[in-house]
Amino acid sequence: MKNLKSHFKFNKQERSGIFFLLLIVVVLQVGYFIYTSFSKDENDTLTFDSETQAQIDALKLRALEKDSIKIYPFNPNFITDYKGYTLGMSLEEIDRLHAFRKQDKFANSPEDFQKVTQISDSLLRAISPYFKFPKWTQKGSKQYSVSSNRYKSDGKSSTPSVGLGEVFSNGDVSSKDLNTATAEDLKSISGIGDKLSARIIKFRDRLGGFLVDDQLYDVYGLEPVVVRRTLAEFRVIDAPKVEKINVTWASYNELRNVLYINDKFAKSIIEHRNHNTIRSLSDLKKLEGFPEGKYESLKLYLSL
């Protein structure tokens, strides 16, 4: 017993230390109790306000609409990679369209477009209201079947003077001629100022005049959406007559006179034909320096 009692004998300093330790424990326990009680009361007062949440959702939708890309009417046959991406198309769907167009074929309805690209029904419903096909493809208009650079009407075929770009323009007979438009005329289009209007006219002069509407897409710095706005007001009405250059015997200087052919590509053509026969204009795609995406434009100026 004596040994047991010895364990409970403390001097003054030890008793003070034990007292302060107990005091700290008690203070911590009280603090924890107060904190948990306050947090519980705060959580209990947090209730779901459906009206406030609806207002928050509405503000989110407005923000999304403000940040979203505005879509203008367009001909889906001429969708670029970037345009397809902004519309929500996959790379495979865009590639199917481009492969279809390389055959000089066109989709003339939303159903045709879906059949070619295999896009989903939901995506078609979302973007088809913005499709703008030529008037002649609509019911009640004369029916034409397009193949390469020719069209048919009433069973008789002929060659249009300005090619496919005019056929696939907006079809509005009240449109102004893109080849006679002045800088002031062009600046009436939203997105075209002094610099771009001057650049369009300079490009047109270097071409000797636009042959087809789609050449407007080749103007450096001109966004596709601005091109579409322009083509809603202007189109090629009076195209210049161009004598195509025979690529099988044309000289270096003659080739370089074509705006779409640079020094490297001209030299590649001459080097290639020194050892090979150019059987088709599509053979040019394999040559070094070929201007990607400009094959249709090149065909307007070259022949075999």
Describe this structure in words.
This protein is mostly helical. The chain has a domain at 245-303: DNA polymerase, domain 1, CATH 1.10.150. It has helices at 2-6, 12-45, 50-67, 81-87, 91-101, 110-117, 121-127, 164-167, 183-186, 194-207, 224-231, 252-256, 263-275, 295-299, and strands at 146-147, 150-153, 156-158, 176-177, 234-235, 245-246, 302-303. The strands form three sheets. Strands 1-2-3 form a three-stranded antiparallel β-sheet, with no helix packed on it. The protein has a two-stranded parallel ribbon with strand order 4-5. The chain is elongated.
Keyphrases for this structure?
304 residues; mainly alpha; DNA polymerase, domain 1; three-stranded antiparallel sheet; two-stranded parallel ribbon; 14 helices; elongated
In short:
The chain is mostly helical.
- Counting helices, strands and paired strands, the structural category is mainly alpha
Mind describing the biggest β-sheet? 3 strands, antiparallel
Q: How many beta-strand runs?
A: 7
Give the C-alpha Rg.
Answer: 36 Å
Side-by-side strand order of the widest sheet: 1-2-3
- Name the helicity range: 40-55%
SSE arrangement, N to C: HHHHHHHEEEHEHHHEEHHHE
Query: Which architecture of the domain at 245-303 would the CATH scheme give at its second level?
Result: Orthogonal Bundle
| Tally of individual helices | 14
Beta-strand content bin? 5-15%
- Do you know the CATH topology of the domain at 245-303? DNA polymerase, domain 1
Mean pLDDT: 78
Q: Return residue spans where pLDDT drops below 50 for at least 5 consecutive residues.
A: 139-173
Gap from first CA to last CA = 122 Å
Under CATH at level 1, the class of the domain at 245-303 stands as Mainly Alpha
Shape: elongated
